[in-house]
Design a protein that fits this description.
Nucleotidyltransferase, domain 5; 5-stranded mixed beta sheet; single chain
């Protein structure tokens, strides 16, 4: 009998639904919310309202694209947290109602665990090599910068994390200083490709152990831009590509220096990245070079599975299904859910 999982992701501003059948991804549909761009960041109330509008059409399209019917679905998996409470409530409420109506199991998924599970996503007729446990993952996004030992699908150990801001937040806030809009990370990445990464030097934190800090970098970048703009009001405009390249290199250096140290300390050479910032082309190329140099076995997710998506929730739910890790109807969303 086929095992078919419907996954729901609604932790922030993307409404997404996906179908996994016998471990193979059949569909992954996402509705984005462009309304937040003019506000320079996600507006929680607008996000939750958009989720309410989008969720039924997105789920309906995911089911149609998969070539199945809703009656064939074995279980529904949803993002419980972390995320924006209003957004999470929409996905949680839909999942509970769907499970109740179809009399199928309900599976709650930690959003961060989903990012890790994205490394195991397989599409039809695709050659794919799964990471072997245990492996080290650099999980980097707008809200998280963590180094994690992944011992099993549901057993992870965080050995390093940010003590203040995350790498994705540093990208976005520094982009805002340069007037690049929101989200700024992808714009910085694009402009950095044409700039000189050695042109400017920015502050790198001196933090013991494997933890990260990006608040100092953000402050030094802000002051650098402000001070240089006094003498030349067009400083940012004139040097935007070099600024982006230098900023990106600094953030990547900070991330990889700790990852290299973690690999040395643990002896683990099976290395992966996950999360929204893992889409950054500079990080991917730098990590690939480090892997070749250090004989790492490297796992990088496809671009489309780096940002928030329901495919990663569905594959997590698929593995939970066989362990009968089900939730009941009393389950609630948790905005600050930990890994």
């Amino acid at each position: 009998m086929d095992t078919i999982i419907l996954g729901i992701e609604s932790s922030c501003d993307d409404t997404s639904a996906a179908i996994i059948k016998n471990g193979i991804l059949l569909s992954n549909v996402t509705a984005n919310q462009d309304v937040h761009e003019k506000f320079g960041g996600v507006v929680p109330e607008l996000a939750s309202r958009a989720h309410q509008v989008n969720i039924i059409p997105v789920v309906d399209l995911a089911i149609k694209n998969a070539g199945i019917t809703s009656d064939e679905i074995s279980a529904i998996a949803f993002t419980r947290g972390p995320g924006l409470m209003g957004s999470l409530l929409v996905g949680t409420s839909f999942a509970k109602g769907f499970a109740l109506a179809k009399n199928i199991p309900l599976i709650e998924v930690n959003h961060l665990q989903g990012h890790l599970a994205a490394l195991f996503l397989k599409e039809e007729n695709e050659q794919h090599t799964d990471p072997k446990f245990p492996f080290l993952t650099l999980l980097v996004s707008g809200g998280n910068s963590q180094i994690i030992i992944v011992k099993d699908f549901f057993e992870q150990e965080i050995i390093g994390e940010t003590i203040d801001d995350a790498a994705g937040e540093a990208f976005d806030k520094c982009a805002k200083v340069m007037g690049l809009g929101y989200p700024g990370g992808p714009v910085v990445d694009k402009l950095a490709k044409e700039g000189n990464p050695e042109k400017y030097k920015f502050s790198k934190p001196k933090i013991d152990g494997l933890n990260y800090s990006f608040s100092g970098l953000k402050t030094s970048f802000l002051y650098f831009v402000r001070d240089n703009s006094i003498d030349n009001p067009d400083f940012v405009k004139d040097n935007i590509k070099d600024l982006c390249a230098s900023l990106q290199k600094t953030i990547i250096d900070i991330l990889l220096n700790k990852l290299i140290l973690a690999s040395k300390q643990t002896g683990i050479i099976e290395i992966a990245i996950a999360g929204g910032v893992s889409a950054n082309s500079g990080l991917r190329s730098s990590l690939t070079l480090e892997a070749e140099k250090r004989k790492w076995i490297l796992h990088i997710p496809k671009f489309k599975y780096t940002t928030d998506n329901a495919a990663m929730i569905a594959i997590t739910g698929y593995h939970k299904y066989f362990k009968k890790m089900f939730a009941d109807q009393s389950i609630t969303a948790e905005s600050s859910l930990k890994l």
